[in-house]
């Protein structure tokens, strides 16, 4: 495998992990625009543990993920009292605050950035991404996934059915933060350098676009969106300066044809009916 292809697949891996971090709260009807902030927490926490305390990669990364999840849980309880555009604004501000804290934190390099000594090779990143996808697939087959859908579809009815709406929303927000921290921790150890400027609002916005474009109705949507946003610009690279214009044109066309996203529940039902219809 060439270095170029390996680099593209590594970027795709990080995009997939970030997409699933956004997908979990979005599946419960919450738009989190601060996902880059939780990636920063996982990245800096894991990097500090391996650099300063001598932890191994295999203990530092789960710890970084847990730190991001814990912050998501603590902050999610008050933040999730808001809804809709106000929740989006609150999470947007939260991401900016987290990035600003690391930008001014001298113990992790502040604005100069923070070198990371321990290295995570591409196969390790690929395996971690496969693990995240597998966990999401397994989660989609549990009762918890049904609770997420019920809370997103109609919180009032879900509450009447005995579902703890607030508990489901907070848990989805915290789990998404943990997944973001997991991806951020691997990002820090693969690129061996992190800076707070990387975890900006554009990272959060692009990650949300992966999920909205791929679709939020099934667990495959974030995967499809991340693949599209990562690989299509590379395929269009031959068109030189027009590739971003062509890419934007493709997005407009796809959104006009499938505003609900590339992968939907009805699309799966069509494929499932075909064998029976043929018989």
UniProtKB/TrEMBL annotation:
<dbReference type="Pfam" id="PF02653">
    <property type="entry name" value="BPD_transp_2"/>
</dbReference>
<dbReference type="GO" id="GO:0005886">
    <property type="term" value="C:plasma membrane"/>
</dbReference>
<feature type="transmembrane region" description="Helical">
    <location>
        <begin position="84"/>
        <end position="105"/>
    </location>
</feature>
<feature type="transmembrane region" description="Helical">
    <location>
        <begin position="208"/>
        <end position="232"/>
    </location>
</feature>
<feature type="transmembrane region" description="Helical">
    <location>
        <begin position="6"/>
        <end position="24"/>
    </location>
</feature>
<feature type="transmembrane region" description="Helical">
    <location>
        <begin position="244"/>
        <end position="268"/>
    </location>
</feature>
<dbReference type="InterPro" id="IPR043428">
    <property type="entry name" value="LivM-like"/>
</dbReference>
<keyword id="KW-1003">Cell membrane</keyword>
<keyword id="KW-0812">Transmembrane</keyword>
<keyword id="KW-1133">Transmembrane helix</keyword>
<keyword id="KW-0472">Membrane</keyword>
<dbReference type="InterPro" id="IPR001851">
    <property type="entry name" value="ABC_transp_permease"/>
</dbReference>
<feature type="transmembrane region" description="Helical">
    <location>
        <begin position="31"/>
        <end position="49"/>
    </location>
</feature>
<feature type="transmembrane region" description="Helical">
    <location>
        <begin position="117"/>
        <end position="139"/>
    </location>
</feature>
<dbReference type="GO" id="GO:0015658">
    <property type="term" value="F:branched-chain amino acid transmembrane transporter activity"/>
</dbReference>
<protein>
    <submittedName>
        <fullName>Branched-chain amino acid ABC transporter permease protein</fullName>
    </submittedName>
</protein>
<feature type="transmembrane region" description="Helical">
    <location>
        <begin position="170"/>
        <end position="188"/>
    </location>
</feature>
<feature type="transmembrane region" description="Helical">
    <location>
        <begin position="55"/>
        <end position="77"/>
    </location>
</feature>
């Amino acid at each position: 495998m060439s270095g170029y292809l390996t680099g593209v697949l590594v970027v795709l891996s990080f995009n997939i992990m970030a997409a699933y971090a956004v997908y979990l709260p979005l599946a419960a009807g919450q738009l989190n625009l601060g996902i880059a902030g939780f990636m920063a927490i996982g990245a800096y926490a894991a990097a500090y543990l391996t650099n300063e305390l001598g932890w191994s990669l295999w203990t530092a990364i789960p710890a970084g993920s847990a730190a991001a999840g814990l912050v998501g849980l603590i902050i999610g309880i008050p933040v999730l009292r808001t809804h809709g555009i106000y929740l989006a604004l609150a999470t947007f501000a939260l991401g900016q605050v987290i990035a600003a804290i690391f930008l001014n934190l001298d113990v992790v390099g502040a604005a100069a950035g923070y070198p990371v000594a321990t290295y995570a090779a591409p196969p390790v990143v690929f395996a971690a991404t496969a693990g995240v996808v597998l966990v999401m697939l397994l989660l989609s087959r549990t009762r918890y996934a049904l609770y997420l859908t019920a809370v997103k579809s109609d919180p009032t009815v879900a509450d009447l059915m005995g579902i703890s709406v607030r508990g489901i929303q907070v848990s989805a927000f915290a789990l998404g933060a943990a997944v973001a921290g997991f991806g951020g921790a691997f990002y820090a150890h693969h690129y061996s350098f992190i800076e707070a400027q990387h975890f900006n609002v554009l990272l959060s916005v692009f990650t949300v676009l992966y999920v909205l474009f791929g679709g939020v109705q099934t667990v495959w949507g974030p995967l499809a969106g991340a693949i599209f946003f990562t690989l299509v610009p590379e395929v269009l690279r031959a068109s030189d300066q027009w590739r971003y214009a062509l890419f934007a044109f493709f997005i407009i066309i796809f959104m006009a044809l499938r505003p609900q996203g590339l992968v939907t529940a009805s699309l799966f039902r069509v494929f499932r009916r075909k064998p029976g219809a043929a018989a």
